[in-house]
Amino acid sequence: MPLQPSETAFVPFVSVQQMMDLVNHLGVERVLADLAAAIEADFRRWDAFDKVPRLASHSEVGVIELMPTSDGEMYGFKYVNGHPKNTGQGLQTVSAFGLLADVDTGYPRLLSEMTLLTALRTAATSAMAARHLAPAGATTMAMIGNGAQSEFQCLAFKAICGVDTVRLYDIDPAATGKCARNLAGHGLTVVPCSSGEESMEGAGIITTCTADKQYATILTDNMVGAGVHINAIGGDCPGKTELAREILLRSEIFVEYPPQTRIEGEIQQLDETHPVTELWQVIAGQRPGRRDARQITLFDSVGFAVEDFSALRYILGAIQGTGFYTNLDMLADPDDPRDLFGMLARAAG
Ligand code: NAD
Q1: Topology of 5-116+306-347 in CATH?
Q2: What is the pLDDT of residues 86-107, one digit of tens each?
Q3: Residues with beta carbon inside 6 Å of ligand 1?
Q4: Model confidence pTM above 0.90
Q5: Considering 71, 170, 236, 300, which one is annotated as catalytic?
Q6: Taking the domain 135-303, which CATH number applies?
Q7: Which is the closest atom of ligand 1 to the Cα of 216?
Q8: Where are the strands (E) in the chain, listed by range?
């Protein structure tokens, strides 16, 4: 969609309230399914994208990251933080916003909240990966870590993979209680559990989504049997992992973008040459996903810029003709493009 001059003065902005209204208007499961389709379509044209590991600024308590990419027509980036200590202060562990711009003019086309959108796109990506990797007929998922991302993960696996039962575990029972309450009425059988082992009973899919800025061992080697799919979400920073190294050595590992995942993912525990499969290759039909029923497949998710780009483009499309955005006056628009100072002077009156 080329920009018309009349469209360039204002930039649509989607606030947190407007994102909630849009998602509730469309239905959360529909949005998750639409996002998975949008992300899958972009993974299929992987070569079209500029790719670079995200730019991370680490501190002792967290990380602030910029995640850019472009397909040559549009450019996008997300600003996102990860601060596991924040929840203790009543703040989100992860908060984000993002921007889409027109490559031809460099003008922004959309500014959006991305805290909710990150939870939605992460869940959609997880379920999209599991559709190619999880054992056939897996309908029970262990959900370990019942914080901000967890309900989105559960609902994405329901909408996209046919999961009908989720077994919840968190070191904080209040988080499990919150997750169980939020999922009530969504058509899932929800089973709160009192240990990680208990949550994994009968589960063909295991999602780990905990937050801790250190090497943690949410899953030990003896907890994981043959024939499961592990969706590892929480290990996404240098020094921040969730799985015992021995599990990685027994698994077929699938990643988003190896140069970023080698720095941030579970595979930071492995040799740089350890083989991994890029998820886009499975989606494009170039590499097999799950090959047999006894294999352990592992999606070592860290979150990649292309997923945010797909999500922003989806939102740009979804808000057209709706009231779920505000036009922001964030671009100077002098009558004569070279008379920026004159515009300022005229504003002085
Ligand atoms: P959150 O702080 O809201 O929730 C984390 C939960 O993990 C908390 O309820 C906490 O009690 C629980 N927890 C901590 N240690 C545990 C343990 N040993 N066993 C069981 N539960 C434990 O965080 P969130 O927003 O839900 O994010 C969860 C993780 O996912 C974070 O590490 C975040 O960085 C990561 N994340 C990854 C992606 C991605 O694309 N891969 C995207 C978003 C978030």
Answers
A1: ornithine cyclodeaminase, domain 1 (3.30.1780)
A2: 999 999 999 999 999 999 999 9
A3: 82, 87, 93-94, 118, 122, 144-149, 170-172, 175, 209-212, 216, 218, 233-234, 236, 301-303
A4: yes
A5: 236
A6: 3.40.50.720
A7: 18
A8: 11-14, 55-58, 63-70, 74-82, 96-102, 108-113, 140-144, 165-169, 189-192, 205-208, 215-219, 229-232, 241-243, 251-255, 277-278, 296-300, 326-328
